Amino acid sequence: MERAGVTSQPDKMDSQSCLNAKLFAANGLSHLATQLDPPSLIVTNSPIGKAMRRRPRNHSTSSARGFTAVELLVTMAVGIIMAAYAVPLLQNGMNFFKVRAAASSVTGAIQSTRFQAIFHGCPYALAFNKPAMTYQVSGQLPGPAGCAAAFTNIGPAIPIANGSSVTLNQNVTFQFRPGGLTQTTLGVPTLVLDSHGSKETITVSTYGNITVTP
């Protein structure tokens, strides 16, 4: 005979077995939910569906995208504006180096011819040809009887550096004495080289000093 309110030992064991069975069934459903594919077969409000909704999502998908037409147009406009500023600067720089190279060619010829006159002890001349953009060296060459009476060309005419892109303001001929003095027999002793606005002015003094400006 059992007392009221007291549960017998077999009843406790039955309750425990029922609870274990429910837990086992729930774990089985959760495991099944993770194995099922596709997820669309799972009822949303079912325990399996809830388990599926709790599964972690992969957020590693790249969010990269292409350029829009507006972005491309803006980039092209910026490039065109930069080119509009860069091209004139590049052209001015090229013209500057061309006229500087031509000035170096002219001053080198003047110094070399003057040195020849001093070294050989005879008059030498240097003629610049404006249309041809060349210079010709000549001299009263020394001989057994001394310096020749007339000037003789020494070698062919030599082109001025960058003569196709640089202009000369005049024809001019310099004559150099053995003592180092310089005189101008044609034109004036000031040469102006120009390359599309970039200029170099070369002035030769009577003592052979050369000044280049700017």
Summarize the topology.
Layout: H1 9-35, H2 47-53, H3 69-120, E1 124-129, E2 134-139, E3 142-143, E4 146-147, E5 152-153, E6 158-159, E7 167-168, E8 172-176, E9 182-186, E10 190-195, E11 198-204, E12 210-213
Antiparallel strand pairs: 1-2, 1-8, 2-5, 2-6, 3-4, 7-10, 8-9, 10-11, 11-12
What does this entry look like structurally?
The protein has 214 residues and is α+β, with helices and mostly antiparallel strands. Helix content is 40%, strand content 23%. The strands form 3 sheets. Strands 1, 2, 5, 6, 8 and 9 form a 6-stranded antiparallel β-sheet that branches. It has a 4-stranded antiparallel β-sheet with strand order 7-10-11-12, covered by helices on one side. A two-stranded antiparallel sheet has the order 3-4. Helix 1 (9-35) crosses helix 2. The radius of gyration is 50 Å and the shape is rod-shaped. The N and C termini lie far apart (130 Å).
